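Memo to structure team: turn this sequence into structure tokens by end of day. - J.P.
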Amino acid sequence: MTRRFDLPDRIPLFPLPGAVLMPRARIPLHIFEPRYLQMLEDALKTEHRLIGMIQPEGDGLSAIGCAGRVVAFSETDDGRMMISLGAVSRFRLLEVEEGFAPYLRAQIDWTSFVRDLGGTEQDPGLDRKALFALLGRYMETQDLSTDWDAAAGAEDELLINSLSMMLPFSTGDKQALLESPTLSDRRELLVGLVEFALHGGENEERLQ
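Reply from structure team:
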């Protein structure tokens, strides 16, 4: 997304297991806890309107998250908020600052993820026919469905990032997908995870 603000060195954090925001993707969120309603209210007062999506890990937080800008929000009759975050960039967590607000804030570093601030990535090695065949088998075993026409028309990055966010992988697997350096790396890992789920870890030749 187009950025018209300077990236801050401190942002609020929204720890949510199993939920990752990929570069240049969007994620819908349902906000209802009082501390996170306060976080949203405070974020909307800033120029950048950034919230850092990050996964819990053990007793702490993952080392890498992705910050999204609040690009849409609406309030329900009972005071809950439905929001949409548009990814701006991944970040590395430096230090959590506790005690300043009912939610977590942190010092972060953006310098490892300059790629996220550029244009849409392509994946020259993507074999859509093979990928869709594999996904069809996987989704059947998981009792999942998808809009294949929309998937066929999606750009490489939107397709791979959407699958990485939506498929029911473990928290650790989703974190690994988030941390993949390039779109091709993410696609290769995604394919490996799907094959592992289908074949129980048997040695199979993976799609490249």
